[in-house]
Structures
1.
Amino acid sequence: MNNDDLAYIDENLRIIRERCAEAKEKYRSPGDKVRIMAVTKTVAPEAVNHAVKLGIDLLGENRVQEYLSKADLYDKSAEVQFIGHLQTNKVKYIINTVSMIQSVDSLKLGQEISRLAVKNGRVMDILCEVNIGGEDSKSGIAPSGLKELISGLSELEGVRIRGLMTIPPPSDSDIFLGRMKELYDSISSEYSGMDILSMGMTHDYAEAIRYGSTLVRVGTGLFGARDYSK
Ligand SMILES: *Cc1c(COP(=O)(O)O)cnc(C)c1O
């Protein structure tokens, strides 16, 4: 893979930055910050590093095994956060290499992160993943269970709850993005230290910025369609 093969990433990123800036300008306060995360599932490390060279400073990983197989090849100047469904018995593989786990949806998972964070002498930033559309196919805590989960997580040592993450249903996503904003506003006024609302993917990141997202997670729009055969 040479840099000519990777030039489409330059153009994709230019478009993403432009659309984010437009949405911010239109819907948000001038001082608001929205971070762009590059979602790297199935993407070759060369392409990931190319994005980092273009100024991407945050990578999102979905799968523990895939991440472990690529981590050594990544440019270390970007921060890595975990965004995929995480089994309790895999926390140990990522506890010292990611800066945040965005997909916490049970107290049991939070307790294991806490145990390993304390053991490793660190504090792990976490987000609670909310299944805002109530879809069976998706992980995440139901909105009705969120307060109880956060109350439990807030008692744990070694974890810091920084906010919420969601993947809304693909249709009517603005209704669900709006509900997430309400949920986030209410919960972040109750608990101090929350400053991240992670929502918005390739098809809805501009809309998500409209509804208060502080972190958009873009894969396909940056790197192209995924090839799952690899
Ligand atoms: C794959 C994925 C994304 C990015 O999705 P695209 O539609 O490719 O932009 C964002 N968040 C999570 C949790 C993902 O699994």
2.
Amino acid sequence: MVKSMSLLLSLLFIVFCHSSANTAVYDVVKLGAKPDGRTDSTRSFLSAWGGACASITPAMIYVPKGRFLLKSATFAGNCKNSDITIRIDGTLVAPSDYRVIGNAGNWLLFEGVTGVSIYGGILDGQGSGLWACKAAGNSCPSGATSLGFTRSKNIVINGLTSLNSQMFHVVINGCQNVNIRGVKITASGNSPNTDGIHVQLSTGVTIMNSGIKTGDDCISVGPGTKNLWIEQIACGPGHGISIGSLGKETQEPGVQNVTVKTVVFTGTQNGLRIKAWGRPSTGFVTGVLFQHAVMNNVQNPIVIDQNYCPRNEGCPGQVSGVQISQVTYQDIHGTSATEVAVKFDCSPKHPCRGIRLEDVKLTYQNKPAESSCANAGGTAYGFVEPTSCL
Ligand SMILES: *[C@@H]1O[C@H](CO)[C@@H](O)[C@H](O)[C@H]1NC(C)=O
């Protein structure tokens, strides 16, 4: 009875969501995947992809309820159609031994695909073993990104949950027109390099209505990002939303036209951050709007740091080449966990230009916080506390 009910529901889903009669459906269980969490189902998923990709009509890959063990898999493009829906009702589980995928770079990678939409699903990266290895200071694999899209366009990720990735949870690299909505990302607050969503070399990425709790940046924005829209995000624990690190390479494309609005940061290391290496680079940041942010006990609510130099290697005595301009902070309020809530530490060679602070109120222990500026130019409008040092 239960079985026939769920079959009926699946059929209804297919009928309502893909009324075009010629949608080809590839159910991974029918292709041999086992929902037992133990049997390696990688081949069945790849064969579902192979079918969907070769289909000349729109295709759907269906993953029923249950836990499916998957090793590293690349879902490669040059498909015959540009309308592939992946509907996931179950959980995809990475091997519990982190070494199996730890050096693969990615766990699940889509490469060179067009028109792929993922609805629902839970990805369980089982990263805690690798985090423990790293914490013990042993030599460990660097770890895999749970879900990567590279050189792809017209991508939708809707309603996905990603748990405990080894490294980054989601990476969008070299893509165009990517719509990420309603995702939930969770890893322990002290897990290393478990960034929530990383975007780089990509144009037209939208990230909305998502909750991200992690041990590194909730969202990080790398070189070559254009027309990025981030809205309605809950971030924390984590390191905040970061444009950067930028300027690590001497030749590097810039970041332009980024909107970050309606974000709540809770107990994070940073709020709204721009971060660049203290070394020469062609990189730049221009046209950023940070709007409507709430800070709850955030260590560095507003920060530009152009002196990033981890382990003091390759930058001492040099200054950042990254030119930062036209950055607006509008309606940012809440509490700072440290005295200095606004810090602009810009490059002496390429001072920050066109910083605009408008309606900012950040307190530290119920008193106005402080601000600190180096090589930063701009203007304050409306009520601004801490008093602007621009
Ligand atoms: C900036 O990016 C947004 C999407 O985030 C886009 O709608 C807008 O047209 C872009 N503006 C320019 C000037 O390219």
